């Protein structure tokens, strides 16, 4: 399936042939699809809320049964003793982001985890207090950083440096990020970047950003909301300090599912690394002694605070089993071809005018293409929905299309193209 763009064909038969050759095609059957006129919809919104794996209802019933039959005994008994529930998902998530098992845990939700991690890693002084982030970051991240600097007594205007696309452009130049890090070398405390911008789909080079931050004595953390389960990473080897992600987008764990976080072992192993503590992060040997003095686990789970949110992790555990089966490298390989095919098809269109604002290079994007329509964006979005294709629309005229490789096919992508081709 190593098709290059030149070998692609804009025909339904070609799409069917690609699906036939796809070793991951069976995973589509592992998901429930919303219905449209009695058929499964084509779902390109996995970057917003992933589909429900068919294994989820039974997985939830398993924990309902433990609760029903064992009550408090469910913490230590039953199929999945709840005491360790956060640990059941960390190995699978560690594989997705290239971390060691002890560097990953699950707790809370994304923005909360960003706040908690920034409490550990943002240690401003009068000289060194600035934070570099991307302009146009997801609003929740903007609010988190804005309130963080305020609570530390700084004004957002002086403490936050936003890296913008250049005049008239939509993507951020990597050299502009790196040069801002250098320019602010003596005042920079932290780089807190999205791994991928939610709007443009631009994937940033986390390795190089981390290196640059470390060179000037700052820490580097990333929001992986649009990356986890989409693009494989090597956070440990890249020496990233911390990261957090939600699990309801590409990871298909359902609305409000428990989020994931990464703390590099050089910080996680050190129980002196500052943090806001709670009993679930305490060493298990002393947790139930209820004694004075917090002794964190020398692991990322030393950041846990509260009792494991079992029912918010059940579907995550079920969904991650599919990622273990498929393998993130296989998913990525399919994803690159699938997204390239979508791009190839879009470039055949001459009846509508639009711009693909996502980077062209596969290394700088994941499954998502963001299409900017100067006219008719809203109408095209509605036309898709009328034809059973779920995509999302953001003003002013951007349709984000995310063919998640776990449950989207080449035929799905072809159908999207066909509707655009016939659009009047
Ligand atoms: C989806 C998303 C969020 C959402 O955060 P929650 O705390 O889970 O609501 C935050 N940041 C980014 C970059 C996102 O894409």
From TrEMBL:
Protein name: Kynureninase
Catalytic activity: 3-hydroxy-L-kynurenine + H2O = 3-hydroxyanthranilate + L-alanine + H(+); L-kynurenine + H2O = anthranilate + L-alanine + H(+)
Claim: Hydrolase is one of the keywords in the record: yes
Modified residues (N6-(pyridoxal phosphate)lysine): 249
Natural source organism: Pinibacter soli
Binding site for pyridoxal 5'-phosphate: 110-111, 138-141, 223, 226, 248, 279, 307
Database matches in InterPro entries: Kynureninase, PyrdxlP-dep_Trfase, PyrdxlP-dep_Trfase_major, PyrdxlP-dep_Trfase_small
Pathways involved: Cofactor biosynthesis; NAD(+) biosynthesis; quinolinate from L-kynurenine: step 2/3; Amino-acid degradation; L-kynurenine degradation; L-alanine and anthranilate from L-kynurenine: step 1/1
Function recorded in the entry: Catalyzes the cleavage of L-kynurenine (L-Kyn) and L-3-hydroxykynurenine (L-3OHKyn) into anthranilic acid (AA) and 3-hydroxyanthranilic acid (3-OHAA), respectively.
Keywords, ordered alphabetically: Hydrolase, Pyridine nucleotide biosynthesis, Pyridoxal phosphate
Family: Belongs to the kynureninase family.
UniProt keyword Hydrolase, yes or no: yes
MF annotations from Gene Ontology: kynureninase activity
Documented EC number(s): 3.7.1.3
Top-level taxon of origin: Bacteria
Cofactor(s) required for function per UniProt: pyridoxal 5'-phosphate
Subunit and partners: Homodimer.
PANTHER family: KYNURENINASE
Lineage, opening ranks: Bacteria, Pseudomonadati, Bacteroidota, Chitinophagia, Chitinophagales
SUPFAM superfamilies documented for this protein: PLP-dependent transferases
Pfam family, one: KYNU_C
